[in-house]
Amino acid sequence: MPRETSGVAVRRWLDPLSTRLRELRLKYSRRLSGAGLSEAAAEAQPLAGLPEGAVFVSGGKLYRVVEAGGGASFARPWEGPRQEQVVLDPDSLAARFHPVIAYGEPLPEFEAKADLLDAEGRVLSFVFRQARDAERAGRIDEALSRRTGLRLQGVRTGLLGLTDGLHAYRLYVHAEPSSRLFEGINLPYRRQAIVLDAAEGPSYWDYLENHE
Description:
Elements: H1 19-28, H2 30-33, E1 45-46, E2 55-58, E3 61-67, E4 74-77, E5 86-87, E6 103-106, E7 123-127, H3 131-144, E8 151-156, E9 159-163, E10 168-173, E11 193-197
Parallel strand pairs: 7-10, 7-11
Antiparallel strand pairs: 1-6, 2-3, 2-6, 3-4, 4-5, 8-9, 9-10
């Protein structure tokens, strides 16, 4: 359970993303539907037209498109050996020489910085047990935020943030949360932060478990 800290508002709230991301959460969140992530196959879409940098799920794993166009599109596992490259177009010449993943579930991207905030415009701060887990979650959020220009950076010891260089729009804590940990951090719109356990984060973080 999140603990209330001085100067920091604490509230248990599922991550309110853009409309498409909220729909994705309703579809896959174990906490809401109890169906887990197994429904992804039923919603599979052709992957050949995805742009470079897009992230998708297939076979319970995350992939990122590393090359698009030029006769074939290629993707690699989000985490794992770089040589595990797959082709997304089964009709391409490259499909003769590489494994093919033709269908999957693309993850919607954040269209604006404010999409990372909660419904009241507050910054979500997720608490992780390990620094590595905080960085892994931050990296996938960074990839889904590529249109916003946000970058994952170390804010201070024990704290990472998705920032535009001036304000932090999401925080990843891998230290004991306290009021002092958040002091002096510029938050958008002069709002407060909400401290949540990492288990309350976006449901697509669950896919990272399959890369352990």
